[in-house]
Amino acid sequence: MWTVLVPILAWLSYVGNSVFSSGYYSVILTLFLIGSVLAAVYHSEVIAHRLGEPFGTLLLAFAITVIEVGLIISIMMGAKGLETITLARDTVFAAVMIILTGIIGSCIVIGSLRYREQSFTLQGVSTALITLTSVIIFVLILPNYTVSHLGGEYTSFQLLFIALISLGLYLGFTMIQTFRHRSFFISPQNKLSKNQPVQNSHDMISRKQLYISCILLILSLGIVVLLAKLLSKDVEHIVVSVGAPRSLVGIIIAGIVLLPEGLAAFRAAKSDEIQTSLNLAFGSALASIGLSIPAIAIISVITGIRMSLGIDIKSTILLGLSLFIITVSLATGRTNIMQGIVLIAIFLIYLFITVVP
């Protein structure tokens, strides 16, 4: 029952913010934010069990990306001048680093502590990695080396072309994941047990419950982003007051937006379903950059808002190291705790360098 009430009460509290605006009310909003995140995790798991892999994880990644795009565009449209020229870049880069190092690293450690080693289907991870690496280089690194426009920016024509290529790669990956090679994204354990008459969770969840969970998932994710945006001013005030860079605010907001997927991935790893964790992580990263950037690029060209995508050399080194470690770690089809520890170490370095540049 709480998974139904919390998102509704959170929406009511968001509407009431214009009337009850105080420090104590911000604490209440924060509690509703956390509750909505937990509700989103619950409903995403209901949908995932009903639809089966990889449709459930794909739906969650798509829903969060749509909300993320709406959040970025609303901030870009509301600001003036050069205030938001790097907003899309900073948000997407933070999301990618959080997913590749923080979420995947934590999932590997959680699973390894309980099961020592966990296995996954190598073909699916390889397909996701080559697609993700290509899109990351096209969007975040290549702009620094074009000569048509300086400052890590694409021209309008270049931006639209890169957006089209990125979207095409994401759609191609989605077709591979859902239809042509769906078995690549199913765990080896499920493949071995496919002839066993278990699979009761699919039948236990009714169509009515599925529809209710879909609606409540959208409500939960929507209020998470709205509350995160609302509380971002308080977060920015705290960050500035302690002398930290403003870029830390973007990481905090990205972390809040990714909480539903992160918690779902952690629970899957704890249940010996590392394949589901990886599907969630890579699907979210690909959607974040393969869907968000094309949508924001089109809005940017139409409205004339400038958008700088190229990351600096420090970020390029950390991103390259993360992709290299992920590729090597997942090359055998099995995970161990050291791989997760290294990824978490990179994540901590990323956070530290952001706070102490």
From TrEMBL:
Gene3D superfamilies: NCX, central ion-binding region (1.20.1420.30). It is found in: Membrane. It is a multi-pass membrane protein. The chain crosses the membrane at residues 23-43, 55-79, 91-113, 125-145, 157-176, 210-228, 248-266, 278-305, 311-330, 337-356. GO terms for molecular function: potassium:proton antiporter activity; sodium:proton antiporter activity. The keyword Transmembrane applies. Its main location: membrane. Keywords: Membrane, Transmembrane, Transmembrane helix. GO terms for cellular component: plasma membrane. The keyword Repeat does not apply. PANTHER family: SODIUM-POTASSIUM/PROTON ANTIPORTER CHAA, SODIUM-POTASSIUM_PROTON ANTIPORTER CHAA. This is Ca2+:H+ antiporter. The lineage of its organism: Bacteria, Pseudomonadati, Bacteroidota, Flavobacteriia, Flavobacteriales. The gene is chaA_1.
